[in-house]
């Protein structure tokens, strides 16, 4: 008989599951962008805390005053809601508010554009290599320090400095722009555009003082552009003018938005602003806190709307790169 051999049962091998499709496990460590975001939030944390603790309550009180009739007595302030009567008074009754609001809004646009152009031009010059570059940069940033709190107070309250300024202004001869403006006005060639240009030229000192921060921001952005991009463009035969519009402007376009918002807010808070002067006059002289609060909120709303619209338009042409 033939022997029948039974096949021995082999032990089953354990199947090892391999996840080939799935990639590596996600690293739980924070990315570089996350770390930078945390650093940014920590940087603005003092401002956020200061705004929450010291600014939210006054803003709320100011808005309540703007829709109320405020009565001042020995016991303090008492408010009675009157709807939007103060806002209606500003637009329909006050003879100066609408004109001042329109003038200051136009000045804000013109001065902001002039400041951005001037600061960009100076930043391009300061980004070049020349002897004494650090000293020249300090000179352009010096007005920012001199225009801060205590220095401005000493300058404005100094009768000697004010007398000297008045004497120089009265004894000085006519400027070149005023002579050209008079010639064009007599020949009926001067229009609104030329008057705006002459006004900007005559205020170049104020524009230079107000452009210190913007110059620093533009300069820091210019220094982040790799030199290899300019070298490659030069090898390809690009001119300096083409490099400016094809490389420089797109690479620092995000800083235009930052400087634009900063410049508008800086003009909004200037002490020589006619709108702020009128608001202070109604608050301090007339003791009409409701009406002054309403004018302040209207001016604030106009500025915020202008910032929102202009930021939306500028952000469409901003080039972000990694």
Give a description of the structure.
- There is one protein chain.
- This protein has 322 residues and is mostly helical.
- It has a domain at 101-317: MetI-like fold.
- The protein is built from 16 helices and two strands.
- Strands 1-2 form a two-stranded antiparallel sheet.
- Strand 1 (68-73) and strand 2 (76-81) form a beta hairpin.
- Helix 4 crosses helix 11 (212-222) and helix 11 runs antiparallel to helix 14 (253-268).
- The model is unreliable at 18-23 (pLDDT under 50).
Q: Characteristics of this structure?
A:
globular, 322 residues, 16 helices, MetI-like fold, mainly alpha
Summarize the structure.
This protein has helices spanning 32-54, 56-66, 85-93, 97-126, 133-146, 149-156, 159-171, 176-186, 192-202, 204-209, 212-222, 227-235, 240-251, 253-268, 274-284, 289-315, and strands at residues 68-73, 76-81.
Name the CATH superfamily assignment of the domain at 101-317. Answer: MetI-like
Strand order of the largest sheet: 1-2
Number of helices: 16
Give the % helix.
55-70%
Class by SSE composition: mainly alpha
Q: What is the first-to-last residue Cα distance?
A: 84 Å
Quaternary state of this entry equals single chain
Rounded to an integer in angstroms, the radius of gyration calculated over CA atoms is 31 Å
Low-confidence stretches: 18-23
CATH architecture designation of the domain at 101-317: Orthogonal Bundle
Q: What general outline do the C-alpha atoms trace?
A: globular
Strand composition percent: under 5%
